[in-house]
Amino acid sequence: MRNRFAAVSAAVLFTASLLVGSASPAHATPTGCTAWASGYHVYSQCTGGTGTHAAWAYGKHMNPEIGYVSYVGQPVGVGEIASVTFPGTVYRYGTSLYD
After folding, report:
1. Does the reported pTM lie above 0.90?
2. Signal peptide position in this chain (predicted)?
């Protein structure tokens, strides 16, 4: 009985080590990101890491029937400047990160 338990334990450990050894590499997101606004435009830029990022804005749309909304711009690569145009008053803005 003892040898059977040892054989099963060894098989479980071997299988677990294969799963850990074959895990995909960790995904990295952009780092060193800053965002800024100028009028109806919001910009963001990330200086390190990998992946993409996009500028986002939240505020009150100029059309009162629409009210408060969020806009997200197109993702761009690290080192590039992302932008989004917001048709109204921007209350908050930032950077969305993607890996």
Report:
1. no
2. 1-28
b/e per residue, 11-44, with b = 16+ CB within 10 A?
eeeeeeeeeeeeeeeeeebbeebebebeeebbbb
Work out how many domains the chain is built from and give that number: 1
Q: Is residue 35 part of a domain?
A: yes
Other beta carbons within 10 angstroms of residue 57's beta carbon come to 26
**Per residue in 42-96, pLDDT tens?**
999 999 999 999 999 999 999 999 999 999 999 999 999 999 999 999 999 999 9
Gap between the Cα atoms of 25 and 47, Å rounded: 21
- How far is residue 11's CA from residue 24's CA, in Å, rounded to a whole number? 22
Asked whether residue 15 is assigned to any structural domain, the reply reads no
Structural domain boundaries enclosing 73: 31-98
Q: CA–CA separation, 85 vs 60, rounded Å?
A: 13
In a domain, 7, yes or no: no
